[in-house]
Design brief:
The protein is an alpha/beta fold. It has two domains: 15-98 and 216-297, Dihydrofolate Reductase, subunit A; 113-213, no CATH class. Helix content is 22%, strand content 22%. The chain is built from six helices and eleven strands. Strand 6, helix 4 (179-188) and strand 7 (191-194) form a beta-alpha-beta unit. The two termini are 37 Å apart. The relative contact order is 0.21. Bound molecules: NADP nicotinamide-adenine-dinucleotide phosphate. Keywords: NADP, Oxidoreductase.
């Protein structure tokens, strides 16, 4: 059913796909602009949203936890499962990526503070902890094909697993991250990069991922806080949305892009439609290229 398998603009008994170049959808010569000048990974934002843009039910309902994950899945039913599986396969094929990205907000509730009860760090060891921690044993681990990257500038996530299947955890921290937390990550053998003073400098962190770890493509499956910050920093190249036929509402409920409001005089990011997939039950897949990644700042 995927729109990249050659059946463009057709009905296949389960839905309709319209590709770039058809039915008023802008023609593209290539889905992915040239990588040439980019000093950071190409960034695809890949999330599932209600028609009104919400990516969860309410600010404190993490979709990684039950009963919320099942309730969210029920909104889309079988066709959403199918479309999301096709999206994952397309991302692997079209954008082979070496990292995914989440924010701490996907893993801990909004009111969670820094991890407590950690060992103190002697003053003479503090400076060394602000250096990136990329132990060779992890970086060169056979079998890993992706980094499970998490922005956690406040040190809020206590890890129960640091490696799952093809994924190793990579934490993005800043110089404001509690030093005890960086010590904890080191003791646990968890990789981290330190970028930024007050909070994680996303542009610098992404550049470092490319330079130090060879990450040329990254798929952000984050919530609105992190994706909004990426958008404002001009770091989003492509958007791959699955839209569920539901409206959730609720001011403050995370959306596809949150973060600071658009500054006076700034232009919103311009998007160019790549393709549309319409399922019979109203589930959509919408793919856009960001035409001006620096817009909206
Ligand atoms: N439907 C979906 O596809 C989907 C996908 C993902 C998540 N979700 C849901 O969305 C909710 C979480 O969304 P959320 O918006 O609360 O959390 P979020 O997207 O994780 O946003 C918070 C994260 O963004 C970082 N951040 C925010 N602004 C930043 C900036 N200017 N510079 C650097 N970093 C910045 C924060 O850093 P610090 O850690 O340093 O504070 C934090 O890590 C959860 O309910 C989750 O289940 C849904």
């Amino acid at each position: 059913m995927s729109e990249v398998d050659g059946r463009h603009g057709d009905t296949d008994g389960e839905g309709v796909s319209i590709m770039a170049g058809e039915h008023g959808v802008a023609a593209l010569t290539d889905g992915r602009p040239d990588d040439g000048e980019r000093d950071r990974p190409y960034v695809v934002v890949s999330v599932t949203t209600s028609v009104d843009g919400r990516v969860t039910f309410a600010p404190d309902r993490l979709l990684m936890l039950e009963p919320h994950s099942s309730a969210w899945r029920a909104l889309g039913g079988e066709s959403a499962d199918r479309v999301q599986a096709a999206r994952a396969a397309d991302l692997e094929r079209e954008h082979p990526h070496q990292a995914t990205l989440e924010g701490s907000g996907s893993l801990v509730p909004p009111d969670a503070g820094p991890v407590g009860g950690l060992d103190p760090v002697p003053p003479e060891e503090r400076d060394a902890l602000y250096a990136d921690h990329l132990p060779e044993a992890v970086v060169a681990r056979p079998g890993r094909t992706k980094w499970f990257t998490v922005v956690d500038g406040r040190g809020r996530v206590r890890w129960t697993m640091k490696s799952v299947g093809e994924f190793d955890v990579l934490v993005l921290a800043s110089r404001a991250t509690p030093i005890e937390y960086l010590g904890y990550l080191r003791r646990e053998g968890i990789c981290y990069l330190v970028a930024g003073e007050e909070r994680v400098d996303l542009a610098a962190a992404l550049r470092r991922m490319r330079e130090r770890l060879g990450v040329t493509t990254l798929v952000s499956t984050a919530g609105g806080g992190l994706n909004g910050a990426l958008l404002r920093a001009g770091l989003v190249d492509e958007l791959d949305l699955v839209v569920l036929p539901t409206a959730i509402g609720g001011a403050g409920t995370p959306t596809v892009f949150d973060g600071p409001v658009l500054p006076e005089g700034a232009t919103p990011a311009a998007l160019r439609l790549r393709s549309v997939r319409v399922e019979d039950d109203g589930v959509l897949r919408l793919r856009y290229l960001v035409e001006r990644a620096d817009a909206g700042r």
